Amino acid sequence: MADLSRRLAAEALGTAMLVATVVGSGIMADRLSDDVAVSLLGNTIPTGAILFVLITILGPISGAHFNPAVTMVFALRKELETSAILPYVLAQILGGIAGTLIAHAMFELPIFQLSETARTGSAQWTAEAVATFGLLLTILGGLQARPKAVPMLVGLYITAAYWFTASTSFANPAVAIARSLTNTFAGIRPVDLTGFILAQVAGALIAAALATWLFAERRNVNPPLASEGTDRP
Amino acid sequence: MADLSRRLAAEALGTAMLVATVVGSGIMADRLSDDVAVSLLGNTIPTGAILFVLITILGPISGAHFNPAVTMVFALRKELETSAILPYVLAQILGGIAGTLIAHAMFELPIFQLSETARTGSAQWTAEAVATFGLLLTILGGLQARPKAVPMLVGLYITAAYWFTASTSFANPAVAIARSLTNTFAGIRPVDLTGFILAQVAGALIAAALATWLFAERRNVNPPLASEGTDRP
Amino acid sequence: MADLSRRLAAEALGTAMLVATVVGSGIMADRLSDDVAVSLLGNTIPTGAILFVLITILGPISGAHFNPAVTMVFALRKELETSAILPYVLAQILGGIAGTLIAHAMFELPIFQLSETARTGSAQWTAEAVATFGLLLTILGGLQARPKAVPMLVGLYITAAYWFTASTSFANPAVAIARSLTNTFAGIRPVDLTGFILAQVAGALIAAALATWLFAERRNVNPPLASEGTDRP
Amino acid sequence: MADLSRRLAAEALGTAMLVATVVGSGIMADRLSDDVAVSLLGNTIPTGAILFVLITILGPISGAHFNPAVTMVFALRKELETSAILPYVLAQILGGIAGTLIAHAMFELPIFQLSETARTGSAQWTAEAVATFGLLLTILGGLQARPKAVPMLVGLYITAAYWFTASTSFANPAVAIARSLTNTFAGIRPVDLTGFILAQVAGALIAAALATWLFAERRNVNPPLASEGTDRP
């Protein structure tokens, strides 16, 4: 296992680059287009792409959580030592905030901002719960079915979730906090954070419970669309 | 083999998430853009992405059919036990309907709706037959040539079929039924279901017959663009 | 080796589905948008996606050429028996034409058409030569470096070439002939075919000559970005 | 190891095709759309796609640097012989310039141009440093974690970086020089090259230093999102 300092550096660096991508591509896309769907495409494609990159290169060091909800579920599953939980979450939150600040610096915007974008109400909370449920199911199912595909699975899951959830799928408390500090395309009002984070935690816990049953003792069935065997020679 | 309850849960859950993506991203894309091609991109990319995810993580449990036409073909090929056919199809239909309702909840729309979008006539039926023919050929050919690529093959096939078929490629009776219950971008009038489903079944059967001949006793040819061997060392 | 009848069926079927995608998605994209770049995106993404699918599932049967320029190069390299050349090319041409007709049927257009879109002149011919040069280099280099990646390589190469060549990269005589029979987004005037096909053949021959030198006796170098070894354990 | 002449040919050819794609798709996208975000999508997707192709097919010959900043870092790491540094960089610069000229020829533009697009100031330089930092981190981390994924990692990293950096991520001195010779979408004023190149070198050196610590002596941790083991059977 890598020593804790490198693991925390990987969590902070990965969350920073993830947030810089989410916020930066949101600014770029919003500036360049009057069509909000085009802007969302310009926000979605980079986010999915960078997730593949970051999880692939940093996964072997820290597990590439970048997300307190993911860290929480791994701790509950006894797959992360208890003493690492708080440092992981702090590294994610601080890294995420740094990502927002870097995006502002690159786009010549005031470094410190507070978002004024309202994202609240039961429909939004439902969306966040669904989004985080799906994210954890993707991770836990992917680790069971095909671990090497997890970076691609998470990247493509978030690509989809940006569009099928009404909240554009934050699905990550650390990223939500970082996004409250930018008054741009990707922002969320600080006052709306509590509802989002509670919904995310709820979605993650439901997924963890379901996964324990659904992905346990898996054996091959016929006919599998996604065979786990090797390609036929 | 996973027990039947988990297999049915996987079929219902997978079809629900697939339909929530199709319907939800359709609503999102339609709201955000006046350019229908942009909206279709915002509907296509999430659908292809989520198919890769769902087939990868749920394939080892249930086979990841999510589609009565696929279940029918596997049953005809004796690769699914007869007693599982009806439960599979019911799980798919109920899961699909749940997906529509969840999408409505997330987007603050009336939960129960009926589509008013007309999709009928011989050109549309031809399109659905072609779409489902291609889907089954992709699955059966992929299982023969490179089983681990099936999630990617299905995701990319549907990505293409959304655009090259005039019907945007439903290619799935359970998804068609679920989409009749939303009066949004992805909807289809309930009265048009019969034509769509018959065309889908016809396309699937033609593909199954062709595949039996085309993909039988395959051996290597030279020069293969898609070598089945391992990468050269 | 699969018997010749199945190989020819694979070539015809693959070229038909490729052309149906190119022509069909062009019609769909053109109808739905006033922004030509959006239409080209709606034409590009499906084409790249279906190439991955078709080469993966049909490659083991026929080699998945779908392209007389590719067949010509493999014949020159003695990797295709001489007696198969003419049947392959005929299957590709007839399959391609069928693809155009199927697209017209699905979109309720007159089945038989002639394109009126002018595509001629030295800049267009340069573009076609460059496009086909790059395609053959991709195939021959990919077969040497990583055969299992060829379907993805060809799909992504064409995705790029649609945009970086002024001709939108036909790069395929059979597809060019089929596209002369549709007066829609993807069409080309029949009178312009000769220039396109000659340029394509020239580009293919130059790539074949270069590849013989460039990809011969390849051994590992340090530091390889694209290692051919297995992932490290 | 391939002989030096082939390695240099691969570097020149690869950089030429990369620049032809960047410049050519920029011209195409800019001509076809009034929406700059759509144009950037039409520039981004081809660039990411061609990077996957070029690194896959040319990586085994030359390492597929295509970038003096990458060559510099490999030389510092003693993974490239000193005598090859200057030839590599010259091949990249000359290849890149050829790529710009080929793009102009294909699009019937004056072959020799100078860009008038201003790209300067501390925000742009910060963006270039961040972009090149991320590129080198992706390459060095990818080589450590999963060498076969490097072509996909670089393609997707650049896909993201086009959007999250205010400079659209040149991240490559040879490509920057080549882009100074086109007064089109992708151009940069020659006078602005110095600032860009210095920022790129700075970002690359910081990444190299960080990588030496972060990616050293890596061992498995639990729970890894990106497992390095084989898929479970």
TrEMBL record, chains A, B, C, D:
Q: How does it sit in the membrane?
A: Multi-pass membrane protein
Q: Which residues form a coiled coil?
A: none
InterPro entries linked to this entry:
Aquaporin-like, Aquaporin_transptr, MIP
Gene3D superfamilies in alphabetical order: Glycerol uptake facilitator protein
Q: Which UniProt keywords apply?
A: Membrane, Transmembrane, Transmembrane helix, Transport
SUPFAM superfamilies this protein is in? Aquaporin-like (SSF81338)
**What residues form the membrane-spanning segments?**
12-29, 49-76, 88-107, 122-143, 155-177, 197-216
Q: Where in the cell is it found?
A: Membrane
Where is it mainly found? membrane
Q: Which PANTHER family match?
A: AQUAPORIN NIP1-1-RELATED (PTHR45724:SF13), AQUAPORIN NIP2-1 (PTHR45724)
What is stated as this protein's family in its record?
Answer: Belongs to the MIP/aquaporin (TC 1.A.8) family.
Q: What is this protein called?
A: Glycerol uptake facilitator-like aquaporin
Organism per entry: Peteryoungia aggregata LMG 23059
